[in-house]
Write a structure and sequence with these properties.
2 copies of one chain form a homodimer.
Chain A: E1 2-3, H1 11-26, E2 32-35, H2 41-52, H3 58-65, H4 67-82, E3 87-89, E4 97-99, E5 108-111, H5 114-121, E6 125-129, E7 132-134, E8 140-142, H6 147-158, E9 164-168, E10 189-191, H7 192-200, H8 208-217, E11 221-225, E12 238-241, H9 243-248, E13 258-262, E14 265-274, H10 279-289, E15 294-299, E16 306-314, H11 318-327, H12 329-332, E17 336-340, E18 343-349, H13 359-369, E19 376-380, E20 383-389, H14 393-403
Parallel strand pairs in A: 1-2, 1-9, 2-6, 3-6, 9-11, 10-12
Antiparallel strand pairs in A: 4-5, 7-8, 11-12, 13-18, 14-16, 14-17, 15-16, 18-20, 19-20
Helix pairs in contact in A: 1-4, 6-8, 7-8, 13-14
Chain lengths: ~400, ~400
């Protein structure tokens, strides 16, 4: 069971979490719990570090910002003991949760489970801090913001857990953002691949890395709410599982599982570049060197040996991208840059489209019928994304949600 | 160097601490620093624990309340790096600071210094959290409130440091409380034994345990202010050292070093107890069993086989002491209890009184001359304490300060 910062934000909520753990114990499960820091605490610590030293040593940053999770582990252990449940905390150096030495964004290499297994066999619930680990050199590391989901999945994998329940402030994964259409439905099941696309498209239910890890180790993950009580049912959230598992359940597999959207990108058009071999490398080489992620790319048909190249980058990377392109202008030889920040990426996602033709056509026809112009298209095996004017986002999402038969009755 | 909670209360003060460390480094010293939690932080954490579970597991209490010091170690390391000084933190499990398993009030058994010595030789300042340790079982322990002084002295002993500088919010040890008389003088040196008496008498400059430890390991301790800048001089505080060291310096040893007072005790008189063997045991046995510390004791001359016994206990222990005595009334067989909360203990302290007669007489004469009645007397080798009416405290302290020649010119 993993509980995020809002789920453990104060003493009352920690007691609430303890009651949720109590139910699982009462149901006969052996439980390990991963907790985040009380919400606001990590921000406060990061703020201290920024104020003390703008160019900080990531090793000491990790020493400071990892303390919030430690506090929560102790408090939850106490709350469980208060309910008469045996419980103890394990810090990352005690297990250990071994990571590489990339402080501030470390990756988990291995988790020692001997202590946890022994405590579990003695009837104790084990509480482990998310987000933190310990390097080969024996120093405290952190996994980067939101790393607690990854900690939980890694621990579930190491323990060969039957399930990894991620408690959050939403009660599952929806066919689309319920704030955009009241017809959005909660999915009972979704595949790792679909979840991965949703996560990377800005649907922030789970950290992308945690989904990758769950997929690689085939850890069944459940997303559910820590605030709403399920009316009796055993699995009230959304299960993120292997495709075969969904098929084995004999569930009707819809072609499209969900509609995602993201407004994190801006569109850059480079006008009048020479249409010759090597020009794409000249253009995208400097961006890659500057660690700027380029997402959708389209190159126009050439006129008079000159062409336009359009692509998207993250909004936060725009100033750096512009600077890099201007620096390389002599080598690339373009006529001008056009920036359009008012764009949105809308995607339809579904493993079913692998075996179904015509999924893209429905998308294009639906958007055309609403008079929405498609600026860029990109596709993967299980996803079709289009770039459109930001103002059409909600209209497009609603129309596609209906067109693919996702609307609730 | 050890810095308490008020010295590291915010980011500005942590930068100030870093500059003090910088000066020592510039003077050619190898420095290890022990820090407390930012002031208020530990209280907040203790409060969380109390709210979550009134009857808490001390092992998890320690997990929670030890985090404040960890935060400060990282922040101070960063502040030093910002000044161009190599610095790193070591948590107690990294050294380790090995303690017994008495969670919440653990005692330090041993400190591993290998890591610190190696880092020092590499030119790094080492920052260590006060107050915390790790048990033989590998669990986090704390030393009890105020334990950071003890951590600092223990680390200084383990490193065979030339000096342990305890930075606090006063600039040294005074002949008496400067709030009572402006003629109080800062002592350049004081012996461990005297410091121990002062500490146990409520002069809260240093924790009693840290002084005991310094005495046992002959660690020279300096008490000095983290807020006032010394005008150039090398040792601006008070040195707490061995008696021989003071003599070796050829300093004039005054007979009395200081006048201390405490208002922490209440006086209990047990009236009309039988004057027979075993009655004192019957009286004080139940108090000892209830872990109530009895300080001064006086027994009156017997009349008609009955006598009165007067003693003092800590103010906080009074309700429990009364309850224990009433429970044991049948066995003790007393007529009544008289409680006087309006008392103060005033003490004159000095190793010089070992070799000087008449020190007590000066005290009694001085108090008599001011019309102050002495209710109880107790003495040790280097201390004479009297219990007087609380309202006379300031009058008595000022008169004694003059009588023993301690007034500044």
């Amino acid at each position: 069971m993993k509980f995020g910062g809002t789920s453990v934000a104060d003493i009352d909520r920690i007691h609430n979490v303890a009651r949720k753990v109590q139910k699982e114990v009462a149901a006969g499960h052996e439980v390990a719990v991963v907790v985040s820091a009380m919400s606001g605490v990590t921000n406060q610590l990061v703020d201290y570090v920024g104020k003390i030293s703008p160019l900080y040593d990531a090793r000491e940053y990790d020493v400071v910002v990892s303390t919030g999770e430690q506090v929560t582990t102790g408090l939850l252990a106490l709350a469980l003991q208060q309910l008469g449940i045996g419980a103890r905390s394990f810090q990352s150096w005690q297990l250990p949760i071994r990571t590489d030495s990339a402080h501030g964004r470390a990756r988990i290499a291995e988790i020692g489970t001997e202590g946890i297994v022994r405590a579990m066999h003695a009837g104790e619930v084990c509480i482990v801090p998310g987000f933190q680990g310990v390097s080969e050199e024996g120093r405290t590391t952190t996994l980067g913001r939101g790393g607690s989901d990854t900690s939980a999945v890694a621990l579930a994998a190491a323990l060969r857990a039957d399930r990894c329940d991620i408690y959050t402030d939403v009660d599952g994964v929806y066919t689309t953002d319920p704030r955009i259409t009241s017809r959005a439905r909660k999915l009972a099941m979704v595949t790792y691949e679909e979840m991965l696309e949703m996560a990377s498209l800005g649907s922030k239910v789970l950290q992308t890395r945690s989904v990758e890890l769950a997929m690689n180790h085939r850890v069944p993950v459940q997303v559910l709410s820590s605030f709403e009580e399920a009316a009796g049912s055993a699995l009230p959230g959304t299960m993120v599982v292997d495709e075969e598992e969904i098929m084995a359940k004999g569930l009707e597999q819809s072609v499209v599982s969900g509609i995602a959207y993201a407004k994190d990108d801006v569109k850059i058009t480079v006008d009048g570049v020479a249409d010759r071999p090597g020009v794409a490398a000249a253009l995208f080489g400097p961006l890659a060197a500057a660690n700027i992620n380029v997402d959708m790319i389209v190159q126009n048909v050439s006129h008079d040996k000159r062409t336009d190249i359009t692509f998207t980058v993250g909004r936060a990377d725009l100033p750096r991208a512009q600077a890099e392109l201007e620096k390389a202008r002599g080598v690339i030889g373009f006529e001008g840059l056009k920036i359009d920040p008012d764009v949105a990426k809308v995607s339809v996602i579904g493993v079913g489209m692998r075996s179904h033709a015509g999924v893209a056509l429905i998308m294009f026809e639906t958007l055309a019928a609403k008079g929405i112009n498609i600026e860029v298209i990109s596709t993967s095996e299980i996803k079709i994304s289009v770039l459109i004017g930001a103002e059409y986002t909600e209209l497009a999402v609603r129309a596609l949600h209906s067109a693919y038969g996702l609307d609730s009755a």
